[in-house]
Amino acid sequence: MYSTFMKKRILAGILISIFFIFLILKNVDIKSMFNIIAEGQYLWLLPYLCSVVVAFTFRSIRWKLLFLPVKKFKSLELFPCLMMGFAANLVFPMRIGEFVRAYIVGKKHNISKSASFATIVLERIMDGVGILVLLSAALVFLPKVPPWTKRLFVSGIVFFIVALIIAGIMIVKKSYMDLLKKIPFLKDGLKEKIVQKAKKFTTGFEVIKDVNSFFMIILISVCIWICESMNMYFIVRIIGVHLPFSVMIFVLFATVIGLTIPAAPGSVGTFEFFFVEGIRFFGVSRVKGLAGALLVHSMGIIFIMSLGIYYYIKEGISYKELTEEQKE
């Protein structure tokens, strides 16, 4: 199923997760942690469920806007593909769920998988922009943050500006297609296939030419991260942690940093470690922080996998089909 290189990457990801699990469990009273979870006030799950549904609704609306240059969709048409892609990310390594999502929407709606994948790439860029905008607002209300925050904040701004500039150049300066035709040692048929895929991929970026749509996508991205912050805000209240909303935005930012590390599927270990380190800075104990991290992570996994599996069964898409697609 996987090449030798991929197997090594998967093994490396598992080892990274084990390392962070070791760090996070070090000097933690496991019994106390489970007692905290057992004694939680689970009525907070009701507003959490509302918030998480709204977050994924916003994600499907944003994806609809990203698809405008390719095809017009209704948000409800994209919601199943969205959930199946997120579920695949929890099962397959190296965020292969993003390719799975492009494959599913391409197959189901008969559109280019390259263009579909480009919308997902742009979606991830917009995620970065959205959380940085939200964090910039939160920093106004935070009396102190770790010293590395501002460095990462500035680095993130630079990275996403450069990413958007590259996307813009790909749209405006399509002469790079001629360079693809000059790749040595490739047959003309293969070169033409590469050029065609590149053209379709570039189409998925063209929404940024529409200023109104582009700023609407940024606004929706900020709304998504407000909802994601609310998810954490409600979950930690289950275990009696009452922190300001601005603090939970920072904790979310710290957790997202952990999600960028190529760990095991579902970011097991890295999610928990960065969540705990983020919330500990504001006076929450390690054991309570880990209890909160496990609840936030597990509730998210249960929600995504429940809907993801439901839609896989409904659409008749099997695990075998997905693994066969990965070989291609």
Question: Could you explain how this protein is built, in words?
Answer:
This protein has one domain (36-327). The N and C termini lie close together (10 Å). The protein has helices spanning 4-25, 30-38, 45-66, 75-91, 97-109, 113-139, 148-172, 176-181, 188-203, 211-238, 245-259, 270-280, 286-315, 319-327. It has 328 residues and is mainly α. It is globular, with a radius of gyration of 21 Å.
Topology:
Blueprint: H1 4-25, H2 30-38, H3 45-66, H4 75-91, H5 97-109, H6 113-139, H7 148-172, H8 176-181, H9 188-203, H10 211-238, H11 245-259, H12 270-280, H13 286-315, H14 319-327
Helix pairs in contact: 1-12, 2-13, 3-4, 3-10, 4-5, 4-13, 5-6, 6-7, 6-9, 6-10, 6-11, 10-11, 10-13, 11-12, 12-13
Descriptive key words:
328 residues; 0% strand
Q: Per DSSP, what share of the residues sits in E-state strands of 2 or more residues?
A: under 5%
* SSE-based structural type: mainly alpha
Helix percent band:
over 70%
Number of helices: 14
The tally of domains stands at 1
**Could you describe the largest sheet, including whether it forms a barrel?**
none
Total strand segments: 0
Radius of gyration over alpha carbons?
21 Å
* Mean pLDDT over the full residue set: 88
Distance from N terminus to C terminus (CA atoms, Å) equals 10 Å
Name the poorly predicted regions. Answer: none
The SSE order reads HHHHHHHHHHHHHH
Overall form:
globular
Short description:
Helices cover 76% and strands 0% of the residues. The protein is an all-alpha fold. Helix 3 packs antiparallel against helix 10, helix 4 (75-91) runs antiparallel to helix 5 and helix 10 crosses helix 13.
